[in-house]
C-alpha cells in the first residue's frame, strides 16, 4: 500500500508547471483526483499556505502525497517527512556495504552499520523531485560547470515535481530546467556518457549535458526522457543475465558481509529463500541476493527482467520479482501496451534499431554492461520510444579485450548476456504482437459475423 507522508505545503500540488514535465502535472492531477480526502486537504492547504514564499511545514494531518492504486500489492514508495528533511539539507546519501558497488558509481567501503534499509532507499514509482534552484534566486552563484560552458537552469517557481522513477535509489534524481533532470554523479556513468558522444548508441541514450555541482555535490545533467510525452506509460527492463559486477563477487568471497536489509527483502518475497545459515545470521551477501533475484525473475532464463511499470492512469507496479516465465512476461507487456498492436510494432522497430546499433557500437564492444535498463515509453498519441539508461555499473574492459554479449557468463569472462537478452525481448514482443493481432482479427471476425447475422435478419 502507498505509504503516507506529510505534506510540506500546498505548493507540492499547487505550483504552476509550465516547463519541465507537463505530463507529471497531469499525472499528479489524475493521481490526486483519486483520493477525495487528498483533494480536501489540498484545498485546506491552499487556503492556509500563501501562494508564494517559503514552504510551510504542516505537521498534521498525515496524508498520501500521491495516491497510486497499485495492482497486487503496494508499489508506490513516497517521500516521508524524514526523506524531505534529508533531501532538502542534502544529506540523503546512498550507503554502501563493502560488498556493494553503487550504481551511482562509488565503490566506497563502509561498515554494515552504515547501511540504509533498502525499504527506505529504493524508489518504487512516483517520486518527488526537489528542484535545486530556489524560487526567487536570480543567479546561480553556486553552480560550477565542470565540463561544458552552458548555463542550463533558469529561475523557477517550481520547487518540487512528481516524477516517475521505476528503479534505482530514491534521492538520486533532482529536477532541473525544462525537459532535463539531474542524476547523482557517478564517475563511471559520466565516463560512459562522454564516450557515448561519438558512438553508434548516441541516438538511444538520454541527451547528456555535462556535470554540474552544488554545495560540493555533483550531478549528471541529462534529458528527461518523459518530457515529450503526454501522460506517458513507462516500463523499465533491466538487461542481461547478470546484475552484479564480477568484482562484487570477488569482494564478497574475500570478505563476506551479510546484509540484513537484503535478507529482509528476500524473506518478504520468499520466506524459504535464505539458507538455514542465512536465516540464523539474518543476513545475505549482495551477490547472493542479486543471484537469487536473477533466479526468481526472468534474468537467468530470458536475459532481461521487468523492474517496474507506470501507466498513464497513474497506477504503477514494481512487484515483478517473481515474474519469470515467458508467458507471464508476455502478459505484463500486453497489459502495459493495453493490447495496442501498433505500439508493440513501434517498440519492435525501436528494439531492432537498438540491436543494430549495439552490433556496430565500439562502446558496447569494450564494456561490460551490468544493471543497465531499456526504458520503454509510449503515450496515447502513438509515440513509442525505447532508450538505454543507467550506466552506473557499465565498466570498461582492459585494453584490447572485447565481449560478444551473447555467450554464457563464466566467472572471469565478464560476459553480460545483453544481446541474448535483447534477442529474447524481441521474441517476447513478437509474441505479444501476434497475440494482440490474433485477438484483433478474432474480434473483427466476430463483429463481421454479427453484422452478417444482423443483415440476414
Ligand atoms: O531491485 P532490488 O531487489 O531492490 O535490489 C536492488 C537493485 O538490484 C539495485 O539495482 P538498481 O539500482 O539497478 O535498481 C541495487 O543497486 P546497485 O545498482 O547499486 O547494485 C541494490 O543494491 P544495494 O544498493 O547495494 O542494496 C539492490 O538491493
Ligand atoms: N533520463 C531519464 N529520463 C526519464 N526517466 C529516467 C531517466 N533516467 C532514469 N529514469 C527513471 O529513473 C529510474 C532509475 O534510473 P537509473 O538510471 O536506473 O537509476 P539508478 O542508477 O539509481 O539505478 C528508471 O527506472 C526511470 O524510471
From TrEMBL:
- Catalysed reaction equations from the record: 1D-myo-inositol 1,4,5-trisphosphate + ATP = 1D-myo-inositol 1,3,4,5-tetrakisphosphate + ADP + H(+)
Positions with biased composition (Low complexity) = 97-109
Question: Per the UniProt entry, what are the Gene Ontology biological process annotations, in alphabetical order?
Answer: inositol phosphate biosynthetic process; phosphatidylinositol phosphate biosynthetic process
Pfam families registered for this protein in UniProt: IPK
Q: What is its EC number?
A: 2.7.-.-
Per the record, which residues fall in region Disordered?
96-117, 437-457
Per UniProt, which keywords does this protein have?
ATP-binding, Kinase, Nucleotide-binding, Transferase
GO MF terms held by the record:
ATP binding; inositol hexakisphosphate kinase activity; inositol-1,4,5-trisphosphate 3-kinase activity
Query: What's any one GO cellular component for it?
Result: cytoplasm
The family note in this entry says: Belongs to the inositol phosphokinase (IPK) family.
Q: What is this protein called?
A: Kinase
Species of origin reads: Oreochromis aureus (Israeli tilapia)
Q: Lineage of the native species? A: Eukaryota, Metazoa, Chordata, Craniata, Vertebrata
This protein's gene is called: ITPKA
